[in-house]
């Protein structure tokens, strides 16, 4: 996994470890996520959603930037272009 989502994932793991579902009921954190989601605190549910959104954003090609945007300067003329009648001077 990319390091951009690692902080969210670590926070989610920590939240699950300290939740009542794991501490008092003795369930596994994965079991709490799958079967006991309504028993988790709001913080853990929010972190789960944020982790999901982060992972989805890494895979969603519509949101990925593959190159740097091109800056367009208005009013700049290319002075190095030869004119057709100047071609005889450089032959």
Automatic annotation (TrEMBL):
A cellular component term, taken from the record's GO annotations: mitochondrion
Tell me the InterPro entries matching this sequence: Cyt_c_oxidase_assmbl_Pet191 (IPR018793)
Work out whether the entry's keyword set contains Disulfide bond.
yes
Disulfide bond found in the keyword field: yes
Q: Which UniProt keywords apply?
A: Disulfide bond
Q: Name one GO biological process term.
A: mitochondrial respiratory chain complex IV assembly
Q: Which family does it belong to?
A: Belongs to the PET191 family.
Name of the protein described by the UniProt record: Cytochrome c oxidase assembly protein
